[in-house]
Specification:
single chain; alpha/beta; Arc Repressor Mutant, subunit A; D-Maltodextrin-Binding Protein, domain 2; 7-stranded mixed beta sheet; two-stranded antiparallel ribbon; 12 helices; 43% helix
Length: 304
Amino acid sequence: MEIKWIEDFIALAQYQSFSRAAEFRNVTQSGFSRRIQSLEQWVGADLIDRSSFPPVLTPAGQLFREVADDVLARLLDTRAIIRTEQRIAGKSLQICAGHTIALNFLPTWLKALAPQFGEVRARVIPTNVHDSILMLVNGNCELMFAYHHPELPLHLDAARYEHLTVGLDTLMPTSRSNERSAPKFRLPGTKQRPLPLISYTETSYFGRCQALLLKKASDALSLRLHYESDMAEVLKKLVMEGEGVAWLPRSTITKELADGDLVPAGPASWHLQVELRAYRDATNRSEFLDTLWHHLRAGSATLE
């Protein structure tokens, strides 16, 4: 039995709607229904009367609801006590972020907080977008940093999870330079000689950004998949070795562009701008987090 099943059940009892409860729990309706069924299998009885509209609790469900609220509250209180004891002393933050953000943005961002807040200690957990969202929803981090594009939103309850724009970045086609300081691989390529593409995996956020950009492109590209990874740093290394063309975040290649080691593989029409956002759970009333959030909001206004 998983704690999230109990949280799902309580949400369903509250909303009396599978679709609304699933949206609140940030999961698909089919996935939500499967988790409720798994809970019922664990209990050994039907907890929801699905023959009525809206769905209501069965007698077994009513009995389980009385216990579930208390058990969940005790578990969460105990977890909060343990997490408090495990926190870094002083002004500190638990942060989860994508690998690219953790490596290229957060060190400078954290250092920039010093004039306002003094030393801010942080525990940074690099992970993918899906796991970052789970950590935020489950209360395992205080701040989550993630990229955002209007056509590829993260499915978070806006009423509970606040966000601020803390930076902008650009995905741009990039190639190793040749001896004439021109791109070794230049878009769009030809049918006879398609360009080797160093790509993100389809399920990664940058992979979805890349797919969106290629779908919206007015000119046809001739590309052949050469390598694939879900980490921008891996793609960058392969591009540096002259293995092909890749869409890289500008923030990761600033020095290489300035040194001339890497060059744009195509015009700005092939670029895609994305926001860098910070997210927090609005129910977390940490005094330091509130103060920091107000500071970030003032800086965010200058980016809009």
